[in-house]
Amino acid sequence: MKTTGPDATESVCPACLKRIPAERVLLADEVFQVKRCAEHGSFKTLIWRGEPSLAKWRRPKAPAHPELCYGTLDKGCPFDCGLCSDHRQLPCSVLLEVTDRCNMKCAVCFADAGPKGTEDPSLERISWLLERAMAAAGACSLQLSGGEPTLRDDLPEIVEAARRIGFTFIQVNTNGLRLAGDKEYARRLRAAGLSSVFLQFDGVDDEIYRTLRGRALLEQKLAAVRNAGEAGLGVVFVPTLVRGVNTEAVGAIVRQALQLAPVVRGIHFQPVSYFGRFPEEDRGADRFTLPELMRCLEEQTGKLLKVADFSPPGGEHAHCSLHATYVYSANGGLRPLGGADGDSCCTTDCSGGIRQTVDTVSRRWKLPPGAQFPNAPWSSGAGSCRGGSAPETIRVEGPVDLDVFLQEVSTRSFTISAMAFQDAENLDLERLKGCCISVISPDGRLIPFCAYNLTSREGKSLYRKEPGDGL
Questions:
Q1: pTM > 0.85: yes or no
Q2: Do residues 338 and 345 lie in contact, with contact meaning Cβ atoms separated by under 8 Å?
């Protein structure tokens, strides 16, 4: 097999988390990260498979270093996060874990959360953390997470505090169980200033939920969407993709989401990463990569979506994510906007890319005022994915009436995006230094998401506290 183009970078040993040299190596149409630890041996992990090629997907960017750093350079990346002066990107989004309690015990979980957890941080402490984040990151987007954040009865008060501090786009990352059964709670969140719901949504078949989440959940997911929409909250579906479990369901997820638009504003796919809680035997054996996702979306939607629609990110490193924006019309047409060969959001100026990313997310993921509620079935047995009578969505290209188009862009946009998070097997320090998603640590530092959640094969963490350590 022909080997071409070794591409030097740095990574960590999956066993001991020591920093070690690494290479990105092209073998046929696959790219692997190859590295060796003097103590624990060699490692080889798939990071990219097929077209569009990694070389075509790359975008050069000028760095934008943070002005206020809570980390001090000592041991070097990834051990001095805060952010530190070596970081090459500004935050586009900060994430705050408001609890580590959860009402589920999913097979896949970044945080290894569960029913017991530790004592929740107080509203006063949360306000201090948010003020620290605002001082360092500015008015970027805020995601309230956990654990399961809706277990906190005072989550609306946390949203209000974030608004007072200056955050204008606030999203809650949730499994949807409380929203499904508590309409008043959804209304309280909207009244407090919540912008959007980031809803765990892995498929349209309960067998998928039984495998990934331990029980049937589809009815509750649809109820959560309905209650969020009635409260005036936009919803983004967030599927965790595991090869052989739901990678053949991405087209069905798209059809379900479009059926529930405009309440559902888009889909943010997340190929599974191997940290937190995930079966050891599945670790990195056959990763599901971003180009495979693009091709699956084209194939499974009958070219309603196409690979050419997707662009590299304008904020984070090009290897991390993808996005596409569409406009859907009342008669069932879906029109792509931009694409890798057209109007890309990428920029050579990292700070400009971040501002554009923040503005775009804020516009696209909120439910627009006066949006018409979807005339859709709210039962899992009646949806278009299961033989319902919803009108077929068709792809539309070519000339368009400008006035109609501008109105539809503002009220009927729909986004498809994906983020390939890193773990100890494939961590690339070049990518990590370009990360624009930070977790607010319990001591008030901003830690790049993949560094914060990084765990060794034995479960050792660089930044996340062990259960029971408190906040």
A1: yes
A2: yes
